[in-house]
Amino acid sequence: MKDVKCCRIIKEIGIERIKKMKISPIDKPVYIEIYNNKLIIIDDGKSQNWIFDIQEQKLTRFPFINMKCDTNRIKSAHKMGNNEFLIVCGNHPREILCIDDTGKIIKKLFDSNKINEVHWPSMAITYKDYVIIADQESVIDGEYLSAGIVILHKDKVIWQWRPGKEILGEATYIDVLQGKEIIITDTILHQVLCVDMDKNIVWSYGNRGRPGSNFGYLSGPLCARCSSRNTVLISDTRNNRILELNQEGQLIGSILPILDEERAMIGPFCCPAVIVSLPNENLIVADTGNNRVICVSKTGEVIWYIGQKEVPRRFLSFPRSIEKTDDNKWLVADTNNNRVIEIDANNKIYWSYGDKDAVFNAKLYWPRCARMGNNEDIIIADSLNNRILVVDRLGKTLYEISNIINRNGCTIKLLDVHDIYVTSHNTLIIVDSESAYVAEIDYSGSIHWLVNQDSNGIKFRDPHQVSMNKDNTLTVVDSIGIWILEFRSGTVLGRITELTDKENMTIKFSCPKAICDTETITVYSDIFRMDYNLIVYDKNKNLLFPIYQESSSNDGYVNPISSFHDPRFIVKNSENSYVISDYSAHRLVVIEIVI
Which of 11, 346, 409, 488 could covalently link to 590 via disulfide, CB atoms 3.0 to 4.6 Å apart? Predict the structure, then answer.
C-alpha cells in the first residue's frame, strides 16, 4: 500500500481575501443566545462553545461540566431565566438538559429512550411550564417519523404537529409569537410557518420547496425569531440577508447584501444563522460564513464583532459542479446565482449563461451541474426547472430534455438532476437525485440503461456525483444510502460503506456527497464528518489519507484555504491536482495530492 506523501492546497477561486487575515478564535458560529449582557456561542467549526461578555468584550470557553455527550454536536442553548439554559445535545445520547452557567447539569428534561414520540430533537425552548421541541425526520429501528413540533408538560406529550414532509421538511428553529402561535423555520423547504394550537397554518413566508432570492422567497433559512418589538426576524441564510415581517407575515424591512463595483459580495453577512434582537433594536447575528458574531443596526451598520474582522470578496454563491475548459479556466455551475460561468484562477469571468440579477423569469433555476459537450456545447442540469438544457456558446438552446423514455415507450419525468457525465460516444449519464436513479440517455431522451438498486436489490436513496475512470467503471455516491457504488454499463459491481487503512483504522461513511475516481486513487467527500471531510483510497479499497480540517497557521494568521466547509464536487485538474467546489464557502479550491 502506498502512502500519501503530500497533500496541500494550492489555490482558491471565486473568493478574494485580504492577504493577512488574523486568525479568528471563532470558526463557524451556528447558534447564539443572550443572557445578562452575555452571549453563549456554539461554534460548530472548532467544536467549541463560548461565553462572550458584551460589556467587557471578553471571550471565554463555556464549561460544559458532567456532559457525557459529544459537545461538538450540541444543537442549541435556550435561555430559561435565572442563569439556566436548555441544551439540546449530541446525536448519542439524544437529550435535552437544563444546565446553569457553570455548565452543571440541574436536571434532564428529555431522554429519547423514555419518550417515544420524539426521535431526533434539534432545538427546544421553554414557554411557561411547557417544553417545545423541534423534532427532525428520522428512521429508527425501521420506524419512520416525519419532522414536527412536540410540546411536553411534566414529561408528557400533550400536543404534536407532524403534517408530513410535503408540508414540513425540517423544523430547524422555533419560537413563540405573542404566546399564541409557533413560528417554525423550515430550512429544507425554504419557508417560515406560523402555526396555531389548532394546527392551522396561519401564514407562511417563502415559496414551499422552491428557493429563490426575490422578495417572497427564501433560500435555506436557518432562523426565524421574534424581535424586541414583536416582529419576526428571518435569517435568509443562502441569500445572505435578514428580513423582517410583521405579525401577519408581511415583509416590512430587510438588511441586504452589499455588492462592490464588480458585483462581488462584500458584506455585511455571509450565511447568517441565529439572530438575537436587543431592546434598542440592534441585532446580534451569527455571521457563520465570515467566521464571526456581529452586532449591527437595523440598517446593517456593523457596531461590534467577535472573530474575523476582514470580509473577503465573493464572486460565487454555493457553486456545485466544475469542469476544466483549458489550462486556466473552469466551467462552474454557480447554483445560487442561477447561472453557469467560465472563470479563471484570477476570478475573471469569460462566459456566462443565466441571470444572476434577474428578478423574474430567469433562464436557469438552481443549476447543479454544467458539462462541456463533445461539440463545444454546454450541457446544464437546470435542476429546479426539472430539465436538461444543451446550449451553444452564443446562448442558443440546442436541446431541452424534460422527460426520458424507456424501451417500452413509457416516459419518466426528470425531477432533480444533480450530475451529468458526457461519454466519449456522445451520450449522457445522468443522476436524478430526487427520483434516485442513474441512467444513460441520448439527446432525444431515450434510455440506454437505468439503475436504481444494487445487486442485492437495495434501492438508491440520494445519489449525487458520478465519476468514470479509464476502464469505463462508474462510481456514484449515495448520501442517504451512505455508500459508494461501482457499476459498468448498467450492472452494479459492488458497494462500499467503510474503508480500512494499514493500521486497521476504519472509517465508516456518514454522508458522502462527491467523488473523483482515477486510475490510481479515489477522492471522496463526507460532509458530516467533524474531523475531516476529504478522504483518499486506492484501487484495493485501502484507506490512504483522511484530509484533516485546520484553521490556523504558525504565524498567527489565517491559512484561508486549509479548511473545507462543504465539498460537493471533485474533478481531476492535472496529474496530481484536483479541484473541489466548497459549496457553503462559496469557492473552488485546487489541492495537490502526491502518493
Answer: 11
pTM of the model: 0.86
Q: What distance in Å separates the CA atoms of residue 73 and residue 108, rounded to the nearest whole number? A: 17
Residue in the structure block whose three cell numbers are 437544563: 98
Query: Could you read off the pLDDT of 444-461 as tens digits, one per residue?
Result: 999 999 999 877 788 898
Q: In sequence order, which residues have a C-beta less than 8 Å from that of residue 273 and are 6 or more positions away?
A: 29, 30, 31, 32, 222, 223, 235, 237, 285, 286, 288
Do 229 and 355 have their domain in common?
A: no
Determine the average pLDDT of the residues in 428-449. Answer: 95
Grid cell 489550462 is found at 327
| Structural domains counted in the chain | 2
Same structural domain, 67 and 215: yes
User: What pLDDT score does 415 carry?
Assistant: 94
Phi-psi region of 175 (alpha: psi -120 to 50; beta: other; left: phi over 0): beta
Residue closest to 119 by CA, chosen among 111, 129, 127: 111
Of 556, 565, 563, 561, the closest CA to residue 583 belongs to 565
Cβ neighbors of 408 (< 8 A, separation 6 or more) are none
- DSSP class of residue 188 equals T
Same domain? For 323 and 245 the reply is: no
**How long a stretch of residues is the chain?**
595
Same-domain pairing of 229 and 369: no
Highest mean pLDDT out of 13-17, 198-202, 277-281, 358-362? 198-202
Is 104:63 a contact under the CB 8 Å cutoff? no
- Look at residue 585 in the predicted model and tell me its pLDDT: 86
Q: Which of 362, 382, 401 is the last residue of a domain?
A: 401
Per-residue pLDDT tens over the stretch 349-376: 999 999 766 545 568 999 999 999 988 8
The tens digit of pLDDT for each residue in 558-588 reads 444 456 778 999 999 988 899 999 998 899 9
Task: Provide the 8-state DSSP code for 279.
Answer: T
Q: Of the ranges 42-46, 192-196, 406-410, which is most confident?
A: 192-196
Asked whether residue 409 is domain-assigned, the answer is no
Task: Judge if 253 and 324 occupy the same domain.
Answer: no
525 band by pLDDT with thresholds 50, 70 and 90: confident
3-class DSSP assignment, residue 511: coil
Is residue 237 in some structural domain?
A: yes
Distance CA 164, CA 222 (A): 20
For residue 104, how many other CB atoms are within 10 A of its CB? 13
Q: Is the peptide bond before 268 cis (omega within 30 degrees of 0)?
A: yes
Which is more confident, 440 or 140?
A: 440
Burial of 278 (0-12, 13-18, 19+ CB in 10 A): middle
238: left (phi over 0), alpha (psi -120 to 50) or beta: alpha
574 domain-assigned = no
- The CATH number of whichever domain residue 395 belongs to comes to 2.40.10.500
Question: Do the beta carbons of residue 307 and residue 26 sit within 8 Å?
Answer: yes
Q: Which residues contact 496 (CB under 8 A, 6 or more apart)?
A: 483, 484, 485, 486, 509, 541
Q: The domain that contains 231 carries what CATH number?
A: 2.120.10.30
How far is 523 from 323, CA to CA, in rounded Å? 16
Whether residue 562 lies inside any domain: the answer is no
235 plus 384 within the same structural domain = no
Residue 355's domain comprises 314-401
